[in-house]
Write a structure and sequence with these properties.
Blueprint: E1 8-9, E2 14-18, E3 24-28, E4 31-34, E5 39-42, E6 45-48, E7 53-56, E8 59-62, E9 66-68, E10 71-73, E11 81-86, E12 90-93, E13 98-107, E14 114-116, E15 119-130, E16 133-135, E17 141-144, E18 149-151, E19 159-166, E20 171-173, E21 176-177, E22 180-181, E23 184-186, E24 194-200, E25 217-220, E26 225-232, E27 238-243, E28 259-267, E29 272-275, E30 279-282, E31 291-296, E32 301-309, E33 321-322, E34 325-326, E35 339-340, E36 348-353, E37 359-364, E38 392-402, E39 405-415
Parallel strand pairs: 3-6, 4-7, 5-8, 6-9, 7-10, 8-11, 9-12, 11-13, 12-14, 13-15, 14-16, 15-17, 15-18, 16-19, 17-19, 34-39
Antiparallel strand pairs: 1-4, 2-3, 19-24, 20-23, 21-22, 23-27, 24-26, 25-32, 26-32, 27-31, 28-29, 28-32, 30-31, 33-35, 36-37, 36-38, 38-39
Length: 418
C-alpha cells in the first residue's frame, strides 16, 4: 500500500486501481497539493490524469512509473523535490510537460534505469545520483530553466538524449551516450538564449561525409559528435567539447609539432566540414573526460573534434602584435596582456574565457596604458571580482574596427600566476 505521511489536499481524489493479481496504480483525478516539509510516497505507478492538478512543494517519492497527462508543477516553494528511486526500469511519460522545482534520479537497475518519453522541466536543481535517463527516442527532453543547474552527473547518471538550457548563465550540458558521460559547455550570454544539445557515440553517416572538409582539416573524429542548436537568440556562443579515452580514438591524444586539435562544424550551406579552431587544455584529475577544446563558434549544428593544421603565426597586421603570455608578479615583465598597437583602434573589445568557457574578463576600448588585463577576474559568472585567476591556458577574442571593417582575432593566452 502507499506510504503517506502528512499532505494537504484540496478536492483531492486519489484512486488505487488493481490491474492484475499483483500490480496496482495510484491515480490522481482531482487536485492534490503536497505542502512544504511534508511527504507523499507511492510504491505503485503514479498517474496524474488530464483532470488532475498536482502541486508538489514538499517531497514526492516515486518508486515506480510516472505518467502526467494533466498539470504537474509547484506553487512556489524552492524546496519542493521529487525523488525517482528504484531498482528496475522507471518510465517517465505523459501527454503534458511536467514541471519540477528540484528532482533527484537514483535508480540502481543494471538494465535501463529511466526511460524518458515526455518533456520535463527543472526550475532549480537536478541531482544525478544513479541511473542513466534514456531520452534517445526523440520524444523525451529535459529542459533547464534560466536559473536551474545540476550536480553529480557522471558515467553513472546523465541524459542520453536532448537537453535544453534557457537563459544567459554558463552551463554544462549533462549529456552522454551508451554508458559514457560526454558533456559540452557553453559560456554565459548577454541575452535570453535557448540552446539544445545532444551527444552521439556513433558516426554521423553518409549525410555528413568526412571527406568533404576544409583544407586545414586533417582528420575528423568519426566515432562521436554533438548536435548543438540555438532555438532562440543570436549570440555566438563559446563552446567547449570534451575528449574521453573511452570514446575518442587514440590518434586524437597524440601530439605533433605541425598539428593541433580543433572543433569542426558541418556547414549545410557549403556541404562540408569547416574548421572552427579552438584551444586544448588538460582537465583536473578526477574527471572521466580528460581534455577540453574551447572556441567561439560561428553557427550551430553538428560538431566534432578534429586534428587540424597548426596555424603559422600571423605577421603583425595593422601594427597590432598580440603577446599571449602573462605573468603578473610585479616584476615589470609580461605583467599585463599586451596587445601592441591596439590603442590606435579605440573602438575595440577584448574578452577572455577560462577553459570551461566562462568569461573572466571583458573590456571595451582596451589600450596600452590604463585599461589592460592583469590576470584578475572582473567579477563575471561565479568568479569574484578582483580574484587572482589560477595558472593555466585561457581563450581570448579581440574585435576592433578598422575603417568600415570589424576585424576579429582569437587565440590562447597562458597565465602564470604562481
Amino acid at each position: 500500500m502507499n506510504k503517506i505521511k502528512k499532505y494537504r489536499a484540496f478536492s483531492c481524489i486519489i484512486m488505487i486501481f488493481c490491474i492484475g493479481p499483483i500490480s496496482a496504480q495510484t491515480v490522481n483525478i482531482g487536485e492534490l497539493s503536497i505542502a512544504p516539509n511534508t511527504q507523499f510516497s507511492t510504491i505503485f505507478d503514479l498517474e496524474n490524469k488530464t483532470s488532475g492538478d498536482f502541486l508538489n512543494d514538499g517531497n514526492l517519492y516515486v518508486y515506480a512509473n510516472f505518467k502526467n497527462d494533466g498539470l504537474f508543477t509547484y506553487s512556489g516553494s524552492e524546496n519542493g523535490k521529487t525523488f525517482f528511486i528504484g531498482n528496475k526500469e522507471q518510465l517517465i511519460d505523459g501527454l503534458s510537460i511536467s514541471h519540477f522545482q528540484n528532482i533527484e534520479f537514483n535508480n540502481t537497475s543494471d538494465v535501463m534505469p529511466f526511460r524518458l518519453a515526455t518533456t520535463i522541466v527543472v526550475n532549480k536543481q537536478a541531482l544525478f545520483k544513479n541511473g542513466i535517463i534514456d531520452a534517445s527516442n526523440d520524444i523525451g527532453k529535459m529542459i533547464f530553466n534560466e536559473n536551474a543547474s545540476h550536480s553529480d552527473a557522471s558515467n553513472l547518471s546523465f541524459v542520453d538524449g536532448r537537453v535544453e538550457k534557457k537563459g544567459s548563465a554558463k552551463f554544462e550540458f549533462p549529456v552522454g551516450d551508451d554508458v559514457f558521460y560526454r558533456p559540452s559547455m557553453k559560456d554565459e550570454n548577454s541575452n535570453m538564449n535557448i540552446y539544445v544539445t545532444e551527444y552521439f557515440f556513433e558516426t554521423t553517416g553518409n549525410i555528413h561525409p568526412y571527406t568533404s572538409k576544409e583544407e586545414s582539416i586533417i582528420t575528423i573524429d568519426e566515432a562521436e559528435y554533438w548536435n548543438v542548436t540555438q532555438e532562440q537568440g543570436a549570440d555566438k556562443v563559446v563552446l567547449s567539447l570534451t575528449l574521453d579515452k573511452n570514446t575518442t580514438p587514440p590518434v586524437f591524444f597524440l601530439e605533433s609539432d605541425d598539428t593541433q586539435l580543433g572543433i569542426v562544424r558541418w556547414d549545410a550551406a557549403t556541404s562540408k566540414w569547416i574548421n572552427e579552431k579552438g584551444i586544448t587544455t588538460e582537465l583536473l584529475t578526477g574527471a572521466d573526460y580528460t581534455k577540453l577544446i574551447t572556441t567561439q563558434v560561428s553557427a550551430y549544428g553538428i560538431f566534432a573534434i578534429a586534428i587540424v593544421k597548426k596555424e603559422n603565426p600571423e605577421p603583425p597586421a595593422d601594427g597590432i602584435t598580440i603577446y599571449n603570455a602573462l605573468s603578473p608578479n610585479g616584476d615589470g615583465i609580461n605583467d599585463t596582456f599586451h596587445i601592441k598597437g591596439i590603442s590606435q583602434f579605440p573602438d575595440n573589445r577584448v574578452e577572455i574565457y577560462n577553459r570551461w568557457g566562462v568569461k573572466v574578463y571583458d573590456a571595451k576600448s582596451y589600450n596600452e596604458s590604463d585599461r589592460m588585463f592583469e590576470g584578475y577576474s572582473d567579477g563575471r559568472a561565479t568568479i569574484n571580482r578582483g580574484e587572482k585567476l589560477p595558472t593555466g591556458t585561457y581563450f581570448y577574442i579581440i574585435n576592433y574596427t578598422k575603417g568600415n571593417d570589424v576585424i576579429e582575432k582569437t587565440g590562447y593566452l597562458y597565465i602564470n600566476n604562481q
